[in-house]
Amino acid sequence: MKQSFMTLQRHIIEEERRHPEATGELSSLLWDLSLATKVISLEVNKAGLVDILGFTGDENIHGEKVKKLDMFAHETMIKAMDHGGHLCVMASEEEDDIIHIPKNKRIGKYVLLFDPLDGSSNIDANVSIGTIFSIYRRISPNGTPGTVEDCLQKGVEQVAAGYVIYGSSTMMVYTAGEGVHGFTLDPAFGEYLLSHPNIKTPKRGKIYSINEGNYKYWHPGLKKYIKFLQKDEDPNEKPYSARYIGSMVADIHRNLLYGGIFIYPEDIRHPNGKLRLMYECNPMAFIVEQAGGRASDGKIRMLEKQPTSIHQRTPVYIGSEEDVLTVEKFLHEEENVTA
Ligand code: P6P
């Protein structure tokens, strides 16, 4: 059935209409965000042409400094978001400290955390990468500058979260707590059009995504789980397929649509894994749960973890509900055995 011609803006307004108490601030915030991602998408999609377009190393044909793409994305997000009057504070993967709203700008009631360009090390290989964002209501007094505490709320307090994947097409996937919806950017006229309404992820998948190069560092329970997926013991059972792009947004987006599990575990070298809680795992967990999936650190529901620092890392097991429940069981049994 042909999708109705629904733009992201129209969709956000219709979602908002379902909440009479809504002031429209969240809608304008999401709208400003979508604008920033269109600018980033333009730059990401011409990155491969840098040498051809006359960029000489660190300067472009206008003599402007050519920035690393993730720094460009970081600065674009700040430029697009710091004057809309909807935010009291921001935090970015690219900035150690919290990012205050400029003094002469109105301070709003929301908090934005983001990874401006996750997976950017892949860009030279033309691999899909993405922007991830997470939005909270402030907890500090209205009208005052936002604080670190505003940025350290449990994931379950998020009011909206989403990602934009810059791949064969640019697509924004977001949730405001009422389902997950995907919009594909039509570059012809720069609109995000609803292409994946109300995304639901399969309860069990047939794909697992993990960097198997780290096998020797894994804990025994995880090793047993991966062998279980490879159906080592059951000659008649079809094994899961291994799919790992090495770009979190791309791996999770594929598993969201097809089903499956993405894992970046703790291991003997990194007790907290590699990925960040506040602007990678929590927003992805909100989205996956809203799509009927599950996300944890192997023990605790991801959205229930109490953050202690903006850039803290966490192990992450995320995707189809039954797959995540199964790996949690393997990890729990191993813990009991070794306890
Ligand atoms: P590894 C990309 O650098 C990233 O932050 C995520 O997007 C991705 O899932 C992960 O790291 C890949 O890490 O150690 O497997 O290369």
Summarize the structure.
The chain has 339 residues and is α+β, with helices and mostly antiparallel strands.
Describe the protein.
This protein has eight helices and 13 strands. It has 339 residues and is of the alpha+beta class. It folds into two domains: 8-196, Fructose-1,6-Bisphosphatase, Chain A, domain 1 (2-Layer Sandwich), CATH 3.30.540.10; 207-338, 3-Layer(aba) Sandwich (D-Maltodextrin-Binding Protein, domain 2), CATH 3.40.190.80. The strands form two sheets. It has an eight-stranded mixed sheet, sandwiched between helices. Strands 10-9-11-13-12 form a five-stranded mixed sheet, sandwiched between helices. The longest helix is centred in the first third of the chain and has 22 residues, at 25-46. It is globular and about 65 Å long. The termini are far apart. The structure holds 6-O-phosphono-alpha-D-fructofuranose (P6P). 6-O-phosphono-alpha-D-fructofuranose binds next to loops.
Number of strands: 13
What are the low-pLDDT stretches, counting only 5+ consecutive residues below 50?
A: none
Q: Kindly report the spatial arrangement of strands forming the biggest sheet.
A: 2-1-3-4-5-6-7-8
Shape: globular
List the bound ligands.
6-O-phosphono-alpha-D-fructofuranose
Which fold name fills CATH's third level, the topology of the largest domain? Fructose-1,6-Bisphosphatase, Chain A, domain 1
Distance between the termini: 55 Å
Number of structural domains: 2
Count, helices: 8
**What would you say the CATH architecture of the largest domain is?**
2-Layer Sandwich
Question: What is the CATH homology-level superfamily of the largest domain?
Answer: Fructose-1,6-Bisphosphatase, subunit A, domain 1
Secondary structural class: alpha+beta
**Rg over C-alpha atoms, rounded to the nearest angstrom:** 20 Å
Helix fraction bin = 25-40%
Q: Given this structure, which CATH class of the largest domain is correct?
A: Alpha Beta
**Mean pLDDT score:** 92
